[in-house]
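Please decode residue identities from the backbone states below.
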């Protein structure tokens, strides 16, 4: 999430029937950099609010005619997002508590101290900033889901549209549930002023947004075939980059992630970003499997021979269950339940196929599994053409 900037919310409306208090507060707040409007009654305050659209309203509770409680309720009906701070006398604690129940952000008591007012305003600004970010995240999510759904529906590779959309909807539903949980924690933290709860809510939102981003990226990858842009690269360097990218995940899951040393320097022509993404998908799956056992370990090794190079990923997890083996390369099937989308292996297999290679595996139930990303050691003939185009296959 972006850094919160409470200083954005500087437009205030002060509603108080006492001219001295109204003038004193207006001058003091203006000196602190706020843009202040004022009103001498609840009725006038509502008219000024509609005209000026302030971010925060400070209103006295006890006023002739429309009192502060009615002002609060009407303001929340007009603009639920507006933060309202009520001003009370020392004997009005019961009314102050009732105002909080009506979604006032805070209350201050007369005589108003500068310190108490500053704290109340900062709290209101923070609530406004978090609400703004939450709204932006929700709108961004809706846009991402709309784009991803459009890609899925239009993809020629996914012929069974009904089954695909159903599975995609299930994945999105789980992610939305996580985002909804994060929003709930944020709301609870704001309501009860619990920084730890606010932090937990933000973390949950970030985690589930990352899942949405991964889903969108995988959908874009599988929906549009493209020829790899092959360049000769050092395979050990590429393997080391994949290990480095996933080191944090391995540490969080308590799994030892190891790149086994090799002898000769292996080089091959490949599309480095495409292969790195495929390799990281396979390694991430292996880490998830190894995390389910004690002393989990994942090893990445490089093998060459027979005109091919191979990235071999082995784990000491529980191995694949029979049902998982039957669907291992199918889109939208995942043995991780709601934690997975079932696209990782599909993306890896697609990258291998577009290089003229393949993904294969050996399953050892109760002992682990080995997945191999096998690629040609030389540039396939169909990719040898000018300007990165595929040359036609010989008849």
């Amino acid at each position: 999430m972006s850094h919160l900037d409470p200083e954005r919310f500087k437009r205030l409306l002060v509603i108080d029937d006492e001219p001295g208090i109204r003038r004193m507060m207006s001058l003091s707040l203006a000196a602190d950099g706020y843009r202040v409007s004022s009103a001498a009654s609840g009725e006038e305050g509502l008219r000024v609010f509609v005209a000026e659209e302030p971010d925060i309203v400070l209103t006295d509770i006890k006023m002739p005619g429309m009192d502060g409680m009615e002002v609060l309720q009407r303001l929340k009906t007009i603009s639920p997002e507006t933060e309202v701070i009520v001003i009370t006398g020392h004997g009005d604690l019961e009314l102050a508590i009732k105002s909080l129940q009506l979604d006032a952000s805070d209350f201050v008591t007369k005589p108003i101290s500068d310190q108490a007012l500053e704290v109340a305003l900062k709290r209101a600004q923070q609530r406004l900033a978090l609400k703004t970010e939450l709204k932006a995240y929700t709108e961004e999510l809706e846009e991402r889901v709309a784009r991803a759904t459009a890609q899925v529906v239009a993809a020629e590779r996914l012929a069974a549209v009904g089954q695909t959309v159903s599975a995609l909807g299930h994945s999105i539903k789980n992610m939305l549930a996580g985002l909804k949980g994060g929003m709930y924690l944020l709301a609870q933290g704001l309501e009860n002023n619990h920084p730890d709860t606010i932090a937990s809510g933000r973390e949950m939102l970030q985690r589930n947004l990352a899942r949405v981003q991964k889903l969108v990226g995988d959908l874009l990858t599988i929906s549009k075939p493209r020829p790899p842009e092959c360049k000769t690269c050092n395979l050990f360097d590429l393997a080391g980059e994949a290990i480095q990218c996933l080191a944090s995940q391995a540490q969080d899951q308590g799994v030892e992630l190891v790149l086994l040393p090799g002898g000769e320097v292996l080089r091959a022509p490949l599309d480095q970003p495409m292969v790195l993404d495929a390799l990281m998908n396979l390694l991430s799956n292996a880490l998830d499997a190894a995390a389910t056992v004690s002393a989990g370990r994942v090893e990445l090794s490089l093998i060459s021979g027979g005109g091919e190079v191979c990235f071999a990923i082995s784990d000491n997890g529980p191995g694949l269950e029979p049902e998982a083996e039957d669907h291992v390369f199918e889109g939208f099937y995942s043995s991780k339940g709601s934690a997975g989308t079932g696209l990782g292996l599909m993306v890896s297999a697609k990258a291998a196929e577009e290089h003229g290679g393949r993904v294969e595996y050996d399953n050892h139930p109760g002992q682990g599994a080995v997945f191999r990303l096998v690629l040609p050691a030389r540039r396939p003939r169909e990719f040898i053409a000018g300007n990165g185009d595929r040359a036609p296959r010989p008849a």
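Observation: The radius of gyration is 30 Å.
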